[in-house]
Design brief:
Oligomer: single chain
Shape: globular
Structural class: alpha/beta
CATH topology of the largest domain: Rossmann fold
Order of helices and strands: EHEHEHEHEEHEHEHEHEEEEHHHE
Largest sheet: 6 strands, parallel
Strand order of the largest sheet: 2-3-1-4-7-8
Length: 347
């Protein structure tokens, strides 16, 4: 039995997302599974994958709510007993609202069973940026509401966040992927991943939008980092840092490689791997900082110098780990026994 070809449609605006999904299903002669059919489900992705098996032989368009994490979506359809094939992930984005969405600070409840514990939540901005980053196509609605120069900036920003995605203006065309475009579980689509892999080549550019890779072998001084984030980056001293992600080390937590995850006003850090747990053949993920930074009107030399200043000085580095752990550290504690993503907090 041939796998069922699925095109998933996501986006932050329910009305625009639903309208596009309906039009896409009609134009590609696929059945439509609307998001409202999964309302209240504890396992919407599994339910959607199972329901898609009973669709038309031509395939299925599945609309999903914004609370569904993009990486989990890909995993659910790309690895559903080999019975489904995710051919495309379409993110419907409002040209006027996309930047505001990336700077929102509220949280959304995630689907899943709580088993008596607290309901899992995630920052809306993180969910939105992941949908953009993993998209095969980004459909911009309300583009005519923006002046040409502002629309050019929005399109270039989306291209930097998701360099492999096609960016279409609503009404120009629809997603028509072939089997060769099918998603695998492992993905390198996000712009920040491609930056760190030295494969970054966004097809749409604008003089106001830029991205660069920052590397530094010295661990971070958490106290100075906090000051940099709160008093300088957050206030726009170096331009608008819209997205940064990668790996870092805090001097006060030696032997731990951490995730750096930032979008808009929110940033999180969390232990990714503890060196004591590495096997002999395991690759060390990072010596110090290895970050991808994407933003508007960035002053790269000044931001690079400021990040360098937040790392250990010569004297601090020479003092060694026994002295490092005595440095001020205003960030929440990590549980290094089970590495996980850090908790989001305001910059």
């Amino acid at each position: 039995m041939e796998p069922v070809g699925v095109i998933a449609v996501v986006g932050s605006c329910r009305t625009q997302r639903a309208r596009y999904a309906k039009r896409l299903a009609r134009s590609t002669r696929r059945d439509l599974l609307p998001a409202w059919r999964m309302a209240g489900s504890s396992h919407p992705l599994q339910d959607a994958a199972a329901a898609s098996l009973y669709g038309s032989p031509s395939g299925m368009v599945v609309e999903l709510p914004e609370s569904v994490p993009a990486n989990e979506l890909i995993g659910a359809f790309a690895d559903f007993d080999d019975r489904t094939r995710l051919l495309g992930l379409v993110c419907v984005a409002d040209a006027v609202q996309v930047l505001r969405t990336l700077y929102r600070e509220d949280y959304l409840a995630l689907p899943g069973e709580t088993e008596g514990g607290p309901m899992p939540v995630a920052p809306r901005a993180e969910l939105a940026v992941a949908q953009i980053e993993y998209a095969s196509t980004i459909v911009l609605v309300n583009a005519a509401s923006l002046p040409t120069d502002q629309l050019a900036v929005v399109m270039a920003l989306l291209s930097h966040l998701s360099p492999q995605a096609r960016i279409l203006l609503d009404g120009v065309a629809t997603e028509t992927p072939g089997d060769r475009d099918a998603y695998a579980v492992e993905q390198d689509r996000p712009g920040w991943v491609r930056l760190l892999n030295d494969e970054f080549a966004p097809p749409i550019t604008d003089r106001r939008v830029s991205a660069f890779r920052y590397e530094q072998f010295r661990p971070l001084h958490p106290g100075r980092l906090r000051h940099l984030l709160d008093r300088r980056i957050e206030l726009g001293e170096f331009g608008r840092v819209i997205r940064s992600a990668g790996f870092c080390r805090f001097a006060t937590r030696p032997g731990v490689v951490a995730d750096w995850e930032q979008v808009g006003h929110l940033i999180s850090f969390g232990p990714l791997v503890v060196e004591d747990d590495l096997e002999a053949d395991d690759e060390l993920l990072a010596i110090g900082q290895d970050l991808a930074i994407i933003g508007l009107d960035l002053d790269r030399p000044a931001l690079t110098a400021a990040l360098d200043e937040a790392s250990l000085t010569d004297e601090e580095l020479i003092a060694g780990p026994a002295a490092w752990v005595q440095l001020p550290d205003p960030f929440p504690d990590w549980s290094t026994s089970t590495p996980t993503t850090g908790t989001g907090e305001d910059l």
